[in-house]
Amino acid sequence: MVDVRPLDLDGVLEITPRRFADDRGFFTENWSREAFARIGLDHIFVQDNHSLTRAAGTLRGLHYQTPPFAQDKLVRVTRGAVFDVAVDIRVGSPTYRRWVGLTVSAAAGNQILVPAGFAHGFLTLEPDTEVQYKVTAPYSPAHDRAIRYDDPSIGIDWPVAVDVDAMSAKDRDAAMLDQQETGFAA
User: Which residues carry out catalysis?
Assistant: First the structure.
């Protein structure tokens, strides 16, 4: 029913639900608590988010929430494509500061699971890209944090140029990872 592929960081997964296609289009079950629990993914999602980004080359992130409002995220694209990134921000982890990137697209129907303890961001690869994601904790402005997309200690290799002018002030002015307490430890 679903294909799960571990990525290079522990807990970060590419999830591709099966599509049932015919001449009318397709049907897919993006999330089933029962089906996903059978494969060891027993998350309780409490909020669904949906964003539209008009221009390609627009970056959103790197975002995370500190405990007790840390979030696991299940991210999918319903129109367009993104380069989605997860960064390990768990101090003491053997993969601390490492990142993994994955192209997530409406055409592929794939998703990425980003666990708590990882910062998350995406760069749009196509105009008018829509991203939908489920989270395991509600949004909490007091716990919301951002890390600079170009932090040299992380060294993300973005596949296309980032349009800095299209970024939010929060993302453009975010602190480097070394300048903040993430609240996560391995």
Answer: 63, 133
